[in-house]
Fold:
Amino acid sequence: MGVADVLTMATQRLLLSGGQLVQEHDPSEITKNFPVWNQSNPEDEEYQRLRRGGYADWQLPVSGLVNRPISLSLADLKRLPQRTQITSHICEQGWSAIAQWTGAPLLQVLEAAGGVTPDARYVVIDAYGGFYEGYDMFDVVHPQTILAYGMNGKDLPLGNGAPVRLRVERHCGYKQIKFVKSIQVVSSMEGFGRGTGGTNSDFNFHWYAGA
Ligand SMILES: Nc1nc2c(c(=O)[nH]1)N[C@H]1C(S)=C(S)[C@@H](COP(=O)(O)O)O[C@H]1N2
Ligand SMILES: [Mo]
Structure:
Protein backbone atom coordinates (compact mmCIF):
# COMPACT_ATOMS: atom_id res chain seq x y z
CA MET A 1 0.00 0.00 0.00
CA GLY A 2 1.49 3.30 -1.06
CA VAL A 3 0.98 6.59 0.67
CA ALA A 4 -1.73 7.54 -1.82
CA ASP A 5 -3.72 4.45 -0.81
CA VAL A 6 -3.19 5.14 2.87
CA LEU A 7 -4.38 8.67 2.33
CA THR A 8 -7.45 7.46 0.46
CA MET A 9 -8.21 5.03 3.26
CA ALA A 10 -7.81 7.75 5.84
CA THR A 11 -10.01 10.15 3.92
CA GLN A 12 -12.69 7.50 3.60
CA ARG A 13 -12.51 6.66 7.26
CA LEU A 14 -12.75 10.31 8.20
CA LEU A 15 -15.83 10.72 6.00
CA LEU A 16 -17.46 7.48 7.08
CA SER A 17 -16.93 8.16 10.76
CA GLY A 18 -18.33 11.66 10.32
CA GLY A 19 -15.04 12.67 11.85
CA GLN A 20 -13.53 16.01 11.16
CA LEU A 21 -10.44 17.75 12.22
CA VAL A 22 -10.07 18.35 15.92
CA GLN A 23 -11.13 21.87 16.87
CA GLU A 24 -8.54 24.55 16.22
CA HIS A 25 -8.46 27.73 18.27
CA ASP A 26 -7.93 31.44 17.82
CA PRO A 27 -4.47 32.86 18.61
CA SER A 28 -6.07 34.88 21.45
CA GLU A 29 -6.81 31.61 23.25
CA ILE A 30 -3.17 30.49 23.48
CA THR A 31 -2.20 29.70 27.09
CA LYS A 32 0.46 32.07 28.46
CA ASN A 33 2.48 29.55 30.43
CA PHE A 34 2.10 26.16 28.83
CA PRO A 35 3.23 23.59 31.44
CA VAL A 36 6.31 21.41 31.17
CA TRP A 37 5.18 18.00 32.39
CA ASN A 38 7.09 14.86 33.41
CA GLN A 39 10.40 14.61 31.58
CA SER A 40 11.88 18.05 30.91
CA ASN A 41 15.46 17.29 29.80
CA PRO A 42 16.39 13.65 29.12
CA GLU A 43 19.63 12.64 30.76
CA ASP A 44 20.88 10.41 27.92
CA GLU A 45 24.46 11.20 27.00
CA GLU A 46 23.52 11.39 23.34
CA TYR A 47 20.60 13.73 23.95
CA GLN A 48 22.77 16.08 25.98
CA ARG A 49 25.41 16.14 23.23
CA LEU A 50 22.76 16.98 20.62
CA ARG A 51 21.29 19.68 22.86
CA ARG A 52 24.66 21.32 23.42
CA GLY A 53 25.14 21.41 19.65
CA GLY A 54 21.85 23.18 19.12
CA TYR A 55 20.47 19.94 17.58
CA ALA A 56 22.57 20.49 14.43
CA ASP A 57 23.52 16.79 14.57
CA TRP A 58 20.02 15.54 15.41
CA GLN A 59 18.89 12.90 12.90
CA LEU A 60 15.56 11.17 12.59
CA PRO A 61 15.85 7.65 11.15
CA VAL A 62 12.68 6.41 9.44
CA SER A 63 12.91 2.66 9.06
CA GLY A 64 10.98 -0.60 9.08
CA LEU A 65 8.14 -1.17 6.63
CA VAL A 66 8.90 1.75 4.34
CA ASN A 67 10.04 1.54 0.75
CA ARG A 68 13.13 3.69 1.19
CA PRO A 69 14.51 4.00 4.73
CA ILE A 70 15.89 7.49 5.34
CA SER A 71 17.29 9.71 8.02
CA LEU A 72 16.19 13.33 8.22
CA SER A 73 18.02 16.23 9.83
CA LEU A 74 16.04 19.01 11.46
CA ALA A 75 16.67 21.10 8.33
CA ASP A 76 15.33 18.25 6.14
CA LEU A 77 12.22 18.04 8.30
CA LYS A 78 11.68 21.79 8.02
CA ARG A 79 11.90 21.57 4.23
CA LEU A 80 8.91 19.21 4.05
CA PRO A 81 5.41 20.70 3.64
CA GLN A 82 4.36 22.10 7.01
CA ARG A 83 1.18 22.57 8.99
CA THR A 84 0.41 25.00 11.80
CA GLN A 85 -2.47 24.36 14.21
CA ILE A 86 -3.69 25.86 17.47
CA THR A 87 -5.11 23.05 19.58
CA SER A 88 -5.85 22.09 23.16
CA HIS A 89 -3.64 19.67 24.98
CA ILE A 90 -5.51 17.63 27.55
CA CYS A 91 -3.41 15.82 30.12
CA GLU A 92 -5.04 12.83 31.75
CA GLN A 93 -3.59 14.05 35.03
CA GLY A 94 -5.96 16.96 35.18
CA TRP A 95 -4.85 19.99 33.25
CA SER A 96 -5.24 21.39 29.78
CA ALA A 97 -3.63 24.19 27.81
CA ILE A 98 -3.73 25.65 24.30
CA ALA A 99 -0.73 26.19 22.04
CA GLN A 100 0.16 26.71 18.41
CA TRP A 101 2.23 23.94 16.87
CA THR A 102 4.13 23.92 13.59
CA GLY A 103 5.61 20.84 12.01
CA ALA A 104 5.72 18.32 9.21
CA PRO A 105 2.74 15.98 8.86
CA LEU A 106 3.82 12.45 9.76
CA LEU A 107 2.35 11.36 6.42
CA GLN A 108 4.83 13.62 4.60
CA VAL A 109 7.69 12.03 6.50
CA LEU A 110 6.54 8.56 5.45
CA GLU A 111 6.15 9.80 1.91
CA ALA A 112 9.75 11.04 2.01
CA ALA A 113 10.64 7.43 2.88
CA GLY A 114 8.89 6.19 -0.26
CA GLY A 115 5.64 5.27 1.46
CA VAL A 116 4.77 2.24 3.56
CA THR A 117 4.59 -1.41 2.50
CA PRO A 118 1.30 -3.41 2.49
CA ASP A 119 1.85 -5.00 5.91
CA ALA A 120 2.40 -1.68 7.73
CA ARG A 121 0.02 -1.31 10.69
CA TYR A 122 1.63 0.90 13.30
CA VAL A 123 4.23 3.58 13.65
CA VAL A 124 6.45 3.31 16.71
CA ILE A 125 8.17 6.45 17.90
CA ASP A 126 11.11 6.14 20.27
CA ALA A 127 12.12 9.11 22.38
CA TYR A 128 15.28 10.16 24.15
CA GLY A 129 14.75 9.46 27.83
CA GLY A 130 13.31 6.00 27.20
CA PHE A 131 9.69 6.59 26.25
CA TYR A 132 8.11 5.04 23.17
CA GLU A 133 4.58 5.04 21.81
CA GLY A 134 2.75 3.21 19.04
CA TYR A 135 0.18 4.79 16.71
CA ASP A 136 -2.20 3.12 14.28
CA MET A 137 -2.35 4.12 10.62
CA PHE A 138 -5.52 6.13 11.11
CA ASP A 139 -3.74 8.44 13.52
CA VAL A 140 -0.58 8.35 11.42
CA VAL A 141 -2.24 9.68 8.27
CA HIS A 142 -4.54 12.13 10.08
CA PRO A 143 -3.83 15.62 8.72
CA GLN A 144 -3.36 17.04 12.23
CA THR A 145 -0.73 14.46 13.16
CA ILE A 146 2.51 16.39 12.87
CA LEU A 147 6.11 16.16 13.99
CA ALA A 148 6.24 19.59 15.60
CA TYR A 149 9.43 21.64 15.73
CA GLY A 150 7.72 24.97 16.42
CA MET A 151 5.59 26.11 19.35
CA ASN A 152 3.84 29.48 19.45
CA GLY A 153 5.98 30.73 16.57
CA LYS A 154 9.34 29.81 18.11
CA ASP A 155 11.56 26.73 18.15
CA LEU A 156 10.08 24.02 20.35
CA PRO A 157 11.43 24.71 23.88
CA LEU A 158 13.55 22.11 25.66
CA GLY A 159 10.96 21.21 28.29
CA ASN A 160 8.23 20.77 25.70
CA GLY A 161 10.25 18.19 23.78
CA ALA A 162 13.01 19.86 21.72
CA PRO A 163 13.85 19.59 18.98
CA VAL A 164 10.77 17.61 17.82
CA ARG A 165 7.65 16.19 19.45
CA LEU A 166 4.57 14.55 18.05
CA ARG A 167 1.18 16.22 18.02
CA VAL A 168 -1.57 13.65 17.51
CA GLU A 169 -4.56 15.80 18.27
CA ARG A 170 -7.25 13.18 18.75
CA HIS A 171 -5.37 11.86 21.76
CA CYS A 172 -4.66 13.09 25.24
CA GLY A 173 -1.38 14.22 26.72
CA TYR A 174 0.72 11.10 27.09
CA LYS A 175 0.52 10.29 23.36
CA GLN A 176 2.12 13.65 22.50
CA ILE A 177 5.57 12.15 22.72
CA LYS A 178 8.46 14.55 23.29
CA PHE A 179 12.20 14.32 22.41
CA VAL A 180 11.56 12.22 19.28
CA LYS A 181 14.48 9.93 18.44
CA SER A 182 13.36 7.51 15.72
CA ILE A 183 10.42 6.29 13.69
CA GLN A 184 9.76 2.68 12.79
CA VAL A 185 6.90 1.33 10.73
CA VAL A 186 5.85 -2.13 11.93
CA SER A 187 3.16 -4.77 11.47
CA SER A 188 2.85 -5.56 15.18
CA MET A 189 3.72 -4.01 18.54
CA GLU A 190 5.22 -7.27 19.74
CA GLY A 191 8.81 -6.92 20.76
CA PHE A 192 8.50 -3.28 21.76
CA GLY A 193 8.72 -2.89 25.50
CA ARG A 194 6.07 -5.17 26.94
CA GLY A 195 4.21 -5.28 23.65
CA THR A 196 1.14 -3.32 24.74
CA GLY A 197 1.72 -0.38 22.44
CA GLY A 198 3.55 2.18 24.53
CA THR A 199 5.39 3.06 27.69
CA ASN A 200 2.21 4.18 29.39
CA SER A 201 0.12 1.11 28.65
CA ASP A 202 3.10 -1.15 29.43
CA PHE A 203 3.02 0.02 33.00
CA ASN A 204 -0.71 -0.38 33.42
CA PHE A 205 -1.44 3.26 33.98
CA HIS A 206 -5.11 2.76 33.19
CA TRP A 207 -5.71 6.31 34.18
CA TYR A 208 -3.70 7.19 31.11
CA ALA A 209 -6.14 5.43 28.83
CA GLY A 210 -8.00 8.15 27.00
CA ALA A 211 -9.31 9.10 23.60
N1 LIG B 1 9.26 11.68 25.94
C1 LIG B 1 8.24 12.06 26.70
N2 LIG B 1 7.09 12.42 26.11
C2 LIG B 1 6.04 12.81 26.87
C3 LIG B 1 6.10 12.83 28.27
C4 LIG B 1 7.35 12.49 28.86
O1 LIG B 1 7.52 12.52 30.09
N3 LIG B 1 8.38 12.10 28.05
N4 LIG B 1 4.99 13.18 29.01
C5 LIG B 1 3.68 13.08 28.33
C6 LIG B 1 2.59 13.70 29.06
S1 LIG B 1 1.81 12.79 30.27
C7 LIG B 1 2.11 14.93 28.73
S2 LIG B 1 0.76 15.60 29.47
C8 LIG B 1 2.81 15.75 27.72
C9 LIG B 1 3.31 17.02 28.36
O2 LIG B 1 3.84 17.89 27.40
P1 LIG B 1 4.48 19.24 27.89
O3 LIG B 1 5.66 18.92 28.76
O4 LIG B 1 4.85 19.95 26.63
O5 LIG B 1 3.44 19.97 28.68
O6 LIG B 1 3.91 15.08 27.10
C10 LIG B 1 3.77 13.70 26.96
N5 LIG B 1 4.90 13.20 26.24
MO1 LIG C 1 -0.23 13.85 30.57
About this structure: The two ends are 27 Å apart (CA to CA).
